[in-house]
Amino acid sequence: MTGAGDAYWERERLPGLFKHTLLNKYLPKFGGKTGSRSGRVVFLDGYAGRGRHADGSPGSAELMLKSAAGQAQAGIDWDCYFSEMDATSFASLTEVVAEYSDRVRVDCRNTDVDLMLDDVLAAAQGFPLFLFLDPCGLGLRFSRLADALNSRPRREPTEVLLNLSMDAIRRIGGHLDSPRGNDKVVRSLDDALGGSWWQAERHLAGADAVADGFARRLSTECHMIVQWMPVRRAIHHKPLYYLVFGTRSMHGVYEMADAAALAGQSWRDAEAHTHDQDTLFGQEPVTTLEQLASDALPEVKANIVALLQQHERFVVVDYVHKILGDHLGEVRNLIIRTAVKELHAEGITGCNGRGKIDRLVVTRP
């Protein structure tokens, strides 16, 4: 597998903006919440690249380093592990890492992540672990990933965020339809997705059905709650890849959903600025988080009412996926407070919406 080339590392582009905003918002949440108990958190960036773009914008590795340096001041130590196979990218990565070496513990290796993973798992015994796997193309074998995640005790927070390349699925899927298709290439996708099951899914329902099937298998095999977020080059394009997130905690679902909403807003703002400002009819206005929240509010309120019909009381974080429904990851969690306050004013709940949103106990009146 070859890493991202010079063109990718010139500057941050739209798909990278969504991904990096997501990491920038979520990693400190994971580190702060899990590290407040353990005092130490372990992070792996399995395809770390150069660490920084030529225009100075941080890549995933530097975002981890910045977050780690910030939380060190709060008494939470981050152990960061970086793997990068490409020699040119690794040389640049080591220069970025050196700038943080006095504040962050870093193990940076010019190797394949598969060869580093066991050492990371050993170092993370007894501590929270976050795996970020963002390859150019196909990544770890599914069986290898599942074994790694299942080796972790349930009491130790463990999460994964990985890039599932739709470009690779579409391209390799084309081998199935071609008389000159390459069986070896097809088997490489079998390995990455955990079997040949995807071939029938693609034939019946297309590439997105493969992404859905992968998420379901990851959830079942690793006993995780799995969400997947589309990443596009432009609003009307097919997904370039999905970011697949796995967690065993509803707190993870809650915080990742909020981070995804913020990343989506950053992406939409940047996407709008890529268009020619002098088009004949002008640009379509950017959809804002406020507009999305306004549109979603009636449905969110209805979802809360439905939950109150099933439960006399419930804690928001335990049901955030049902509260937000199809709007999970699209609107910020702040909408839940608004919905609860309006329902309180209508006499539908005894909860007044005050306090931390995730800890709100919504009750019948």
How are the SSEs ordered, and which strands pair?
Elements (H helix, E strand, L loop, with lengths): L13 H25 L1 E6 L14 H13 L4 E7 L3 H12 L6 E5 L3 H11 L5 E5 L8 H9 L7 E8 H12 L5 H11 L3 H9 L1 H16 L2 E7 L9 E7 L2 H24 L15 H22 L2 E3 L4 H5 L9 H12 L15 E3 L2
Parallel strand pairs: 1-2, 1-4, 2-3, 4-5
Antiparallel strand pairs: 5-7, 6-7, 8-9
* Helix content estimate: 40-55%
SSE order: HEHEHEHEHEHHHHEEHHEHHE
> Quick check: average pLDDT?
92
Major sheet summary line: 7 strands, mixed
The gross shape turns out to be: globular
Structural class: alpha/beta
Strand residue percentage = 5-15%
Distance between the termini: 59 Å
State the strand order across the main sheet: 3-2-1-4-5-7-6
Radius of gyration: 21 Å
Low-confidence stretches: none
Give the count of helical stretches: 13
Q: How many DSSP E strands? A: 9
Structure, described:
By secondary structure, this protein is an alpha/beta fold. Helix content is 50%, strand content 14%. It has 13 helices and 9 strands. The strands form 2 sheets. It has a 7-stranded mixed β-sheet with strand order 3-2-1-4-5-7-6, sandwiched between helices. Strands 8-9 form a two-stranded antiparallel ribbon. Helix 2 (60-72) links the parallel strand 1 and strand 2. Helix 1 runs parallel beside helix 2 and helix 1 runs antiparallel to helix 10. The protein is globular and about 65 Å long. The mean pLDDT is 92.
